[in-house]
Amino acid sequence: MNKITILIHCHDQPNIIASVTNFIVKNNGNIVYIDQYVDREQNIFFMRLESEFVSDNFNTNNFKTDFKTSLADKFTMKWRIYSSEAKPKMALFVSKYDHCLYDLLARYNSGELNLEIPFIISNHNDLKHIADNFKIPFYHIPVTKETKTNAEEKQLELLKSHNIDFIVLARYMQIVSNKLIDVYKNKIINIHHSFLPAFVGAKPYHSAYKRGVKIIGATSHYVTEELDAGPIIEQDVTRVTHAHAIQDLIAKGRDLEKIVLANAVKLHANRKVMVFNNKTIIFT
Amino acid sequence: MNKITILIHCHDQPNIIASVTNFIVKNNGNIVYIDQYVDREQNIFFMRLESEFVSDNFNTNNFKTDFKTSLADKFTMKWRIYSSEAKPKMALFVSKYDHCLYDLLARYNSGELNLEIPFIISNHNDLKHIADNFKIPFYHIPVTKETKTNAEEKQLELLKSHNIDFIVLARYMQIVSNKLIDVYKNKIINIHHSFLPAFVGAKPYHSAYKRGVKIIGATSHYVTEELDAGPIIEQDVTRVTHAHAIQDLIAKGRDLEKIVLANAVKLHANRKVMVFNNKTIIFT
Amino acid sequence: MNKITILIHCHDQPNIIASVTNFIVKNNGNIVYIDQYVDREQNIFFMRLESEFVSDNFNTNNFKTDFKTSLADKFTMKWRIYSSEAKPKMALFVSKYDHCLYDLLARYNSGELNLEIPFIISNHNDLKHIADNFKIPFYHIPVTKETKTNAEEKQLELLKSHNIDFIVLARYMQIVSNKLIDVYKNKIINIHHSFLPAFVGAKPYHSAYKRGVKIIGATSHYVTEELDAGPIIEQDVTRVTHAHAIQDLIAKGRDLEKIVLANAVKLHANRKVMVFNNKTIIFT
Amino acid sequence: MNKITILIHCHDQPNIIASVTNFIVKNNGNIVYIDQYVDREQNIFFMRLESEFVSDNFNTNNFKTDFKTSLADKFTMKWRIYSSEAKPKMALFVSKYDHCLYDLLARYNSGELNLEIPFIISNHNDLKHIADNFKIPFYHIPVTKETKTNAEEKQLELLKSHNIDFIVLARYMQIVSNKLIDVYKNKIINIHHSFLPAFVGAKPYHSAYKRGVKIIGATSHYVTEELDAGPIIEQDVTRVTHAHAIQDLIAKGRDLEKIVLANAVKLHANRKVMVFNNKTIIFT
């Protein structure tokens, strides 16, 4: 049996839902999940649909061609169609902090993540032993002012040669270049250690301490050219008091960071995220 | 323009979604919201759909008849169709506590609630002044062991004569009889002052204090014959510490109770709740 | 029996705690609550202490004098001593939104708030009927560009003539002048409808919607000259999704605003808040 | 410099605080933290105090003797005094689930936990590779009906020979015998995968699914003879919907379990927990 996930957006107009559901039926598919959302301000229609096709004759490429000509072109849709067999390939970028790395790899190991991790890239060697423990190839690509361009070339080469679908910056601590962002638009997931848009930039726990907030947070978002301003995928928060020193905020924040990042990775890998107008639509 | 909300459930089977969406199109309607859920354990399909009909010829009763014969009978559906023009009528039952009453009436007054409150019933006169302030008829129906049956007759009479759609027990403090429950099946909303199923029954804050929990909660649920065991609509919780006395739990709990109850009332009044197998499906 | 609450801060130095506890014992008091905090960055010691004095001879003024000469001067303390008999007097400033007003007055009515509300001031007449219902004097003081100075004079006159201890801006919607802020330093409590420091200024729900955050919040803080930048007393948050329109954020936010403001008012009225370096220390 | 943590409880009576603080001063100590709580129902006083002693002559044993004779005996105190130099020794019991194990060991590795882990015990060999990765001795002690007594002897032997201070059951999946509970009273920390007291016993996620709760939780508590009824140390919760299958609850629950257990371990290891009347007092 083939299982297909379809993501669509287009200008809102009558009969989109009926047309799509009819198209599935015409192709002998059964809809097992449908959800839609209309941005009334921008007048944009969004849909996520999962469908099963039992026929042996079903061919994903033919289906895509047919979908384009008989449906997508008519409604001027932007669309993506995924086969559930193809697990997305994720590259992990890390630096020196290990909590998000441990957390993601432990989930990966236990089968919780519907994805593949072909390799880990780091600008430092500190976490190589963890990659080794989990038997995942680890590439040490140092980044200095002088070597930055060269390092990016190496990164891109690795990403391309492994057909990487998306990148996760698990506290990578380096600003990613526009070149990489262009290639992986809305496909680079970062974890920022504050409740964005509060405390953009470096040292957000220090800023939170200074401002005396009673709640701290973490935010996972797609990386865009503007720092910490990309579409937000997931956020979470926890209470703090005046008695928490900066070190306490950092420790409490680690727990937020790993959970928020893992949730964002799962949403992305399960094709539940659409991006429009620098905001995400998250399907359930 | 007519706006219709449809709630459906039936055994899961192929082509339900396409058949329903086609039916809407055939009737010149435009689907503005669709959400579905399949209970895979019980193999039951649930759907909520909102549709707009611009034609002046549209007739809700004809639509219902047509829906039944050409769709619902075929799939053996249980279904309800609501016109958005008809606001549900809600009866408020209160006793001596005023926090939920104030909260609901303040929301009602500000236009936040999509419903009508024809009257308030209470077994005590203590809160009459609040009903008076908000200019809502208040019926004092005392309940004692001896008068209980008689009191219920009076309640039912009032409920029927005002075509009440659903009842909200805003800390009513009396156990409602099976007779009333039968007439208003899954239409009596209670607020229980604990995180059910912990601390069923009377004095839950005392039990929570004794057990030394670090989190307390409130639960809004439909009333069934078994006490505090009906389908849960909404729950919320808040942190407490050893330093909170029972009185503190009660005070903190009041804030939970009023928010949780108000949310449950809004979900019900907006026809976003379905009940199956003593559980709720809550559409967004 | 006399019950006294003492709030102290001074540079951290040895033997403060023992000296203070000895002083209480020497005065035949029994300490029923003690909590302390040291800001290690600034090296400042903070303490809150509650003590009971059973002797009929106990005199609060003598106690204060004695405290100053034999203790406070020695450690160069900033200190405040409150008798539990004297309930603080709170002035309510409102405008057109009623949710915080209803919430605070319902709590006040039920005895939940340890304070007195001598009057309500508003720049509009819209909420007068609520003040009337709760039988609290209501002063309509319109504010326009031309009358602003004059209006403030009237406000200050009322505040002084009623010996008001602190002011609560329950969605007052007007910027308070520095003159009022100077007189009531760290004694004017505002509720801001965002998770500060995100979305400072006007229309924070619109900004939150535009940024696509997954969590919205409310913040209660003391008013300082810089807008929305004063010491934070209390914050809370709630989850939202892409499907929430601005109106939904506003409605959900109202529930946050009233709970957060009420908690801040209770903390202040119970003398559990100290301010230092634009941050609050909140005792339990 | 010596740093000492003192935990006290006794019947509430006048002058305890002043007497303790005086005793510290007399011994040339400086109090850096003091917190107290009075259970007004039971009339019991609890205190936690941290104090620094700079003198080279300070001797912890002498201090304890002196504390007992001149203070504890007088007030009939139960007391414990810890030197901050002595890190508590924790034994980890695991079975087949790895999420709590990975989480605790990653924290341990990064220096977040103020304790030592001399060894891990498991009734299965499945997680040995993780213990090996983290270079912690792993003892495989199978438990069957027949070998249960024998297995416990081996466990106790290991615990004694390593001077283990407390035990953490990181999803150990076996019921611990009363013999072990007696030796480690209020020193065996369990993580239960529900919001206790809801869903006591086996398969709580299945029960939560069946009941249709909108919030699930996890609870860390000390093990007592009655199953899942010991003093609660820490709890946390997360929202779920009707659309979450049991497997989803289990996956979401894992995140709760590891955070809640880690927090409980930190509170215990930092001597911030006291137990009285089957409830915990948790100092900040």
UniProtKB/TrEMBL annotation, chains A, B, C, D:
It catalyses: (6R)-10-formyltetrahydrofolate + H2O = (6S)-5,6,7,8-tetrahydrofolate + formate + H(+). Pathway: Purine metabolism; IMP biosynthesis via de novo pathway; formate from 10-formyl-5,6,7,8-tetrahydrofolate: step 1/1. One of its GO terms (biological process) is one-carbon metabolic process. The active site is at D228. GO terms for molecular function: formyltetrahydrofolate deformylase activity. Keywords: Hydrolase, One-carbon metabolism, Purine biosynthesis. Residues 5-83 form the ACT domain. Catalyzes the hydrolysis of 10-formyltetrahydrofolate (formyl-FH4) to formate and tetrahydrofolate (FH4). Coiled coil: none annotated. It comes from Neotamlana sedimentorum. Its EC number is 3.5.1.10. Belongs to the PurU family. The keyword Hydrolase applies. This is Formyltetrahydrofolate deformylase.
